Amino acid sequence: PCQSEAPITESIFQQYNDQGLIVIANGFDYSPDGPYSCTSWASSFGITYPILDGDADGTIWSLFGQGYIPHNVVLNHNMEVIYTDAGFNQSAVINAIEQALADLPADEDEDGYDDPEDNCPEVYNPDQSDIDGDNAGDACDICDNANIFVIGNVNGDLDQEGLPIIDIVDVLALVDLILLGGDTGLLECAAEAGNVTGDVHVNVIDVIQLVQMILGGENSASMGGGEPAEGTLSVFHTGETDKVILASPDKISGFQFEFPLFVLTPGDLDKVVLPEGWSMNYSINEDHVRVLAYDQSGENSQKKIEFELPGVDIGSFQYTVVSSPKAGEINISFSEFEPGFNEILLPDSPMINSLYPNPFNPVLSVTFSIPFEIETRVAVYNTLGEMVKILYDKNDLKPGHHTFYWNAADQSSGMYFIQIQTPIGTDTKKALLVK
Known about the structure:
- 18% of the residues lie in helices and 34% in strands.
- It is built from eight helices and 21 strands.
- The strands form five sheets. Strands 6, 7, 11, 13, 14, 15, 16 and 19 form an eight-stranded mixed beta sheet that branches. A four-stranded antiparallel beta sheet has the order 9-10-8-12, with helices on one face. Strands 18-17-20-21 form a four-stranded antiparallel beta sheet, with no helix packed on it.
- Helix 5 packs across helix 6 (185-194) and helix 5 (168-180) runs antiparallel to helix 7.
- It is elongated, with a radius of gyration of 33 Å.
- This is Secretion system C-terminal sorting domain-containing protein.
């Protein structure tokens, strides 16, 4: 059937959404009383779909035509020409149509948000609420962070009225989560509820903050934050044993670290004596031992903690995290002393001691040494030589051994270069991110 005008854009858009494809022909009245009219075009080519009755001036012909019939034009949902050519190249036309259909916006649940932007593509949720900001809307988030796995309710318990229960059991569940790991199903929900500080890590700092929440202390909005406190981790080799001393003027409420399994045994950890009210837990993960200790009472933080761990040295400590009573991170400087308490000599220039694990995903531990207080930058570069992250860039880093962490969750798999830069020299090592 010939029509005097094309459907309006909105009508075309609706037909795209409802039917997937709309086909319109054009037959202009080159000779209205002769063979070249709209009706004759339709009859000659067997057209049964809508055909636009063009004027004798050939407006559409001039817009798309090249002097040959047939001439095929494919427009996408934005009315942009993505294909135009004379003759009939069937495969090219079909490919263009399929591409246009693939690029169509879709709103499967009809909530007003196209699927690429909809945080619940299959569930109607026009408010797009997402209480935990994880890009999974509350309407389809299996964790239900609005009602069940709220911050602190790590094990997902509810009372008889359906309200979350946050108690010491959640602290124990969070400790187990950190030690044993896991990132799928309910473990993923537990990790979201256990990320009490709201940063990208779930570690002993979250444990301390959760303890304070349960005891009626400060909440996540007022705890942590600010500049990290300073502390030291020293290893003293006395000749008879090896003593570890953690110290900070801001006091310590918890710590965690990892050791290679060949360095010490679970029996060594079982002999560790901690201050009253403290608890130590550990797990064996393949070839490493993961250790977490914290002030379970919430009332006995310490400026100095001493314990014996036979056979350890500074290089043994990996993934070290230390927390203050207010769930703030304590930046740790490492030092080591031989019998007579003479500090082990530091290198003459900056030196990367270890990158662990390597390959890694997504967090890399960077341990390095500098000989004296000096302006220091710790940076990460990709294979194009582009700087992708600065881990540290200040002029007050104290001499000794230091550890920083790089979370590469927003980077693609590949080789990266970790570089320590100082006025007296640099050191660079490679790390492989495998996702």
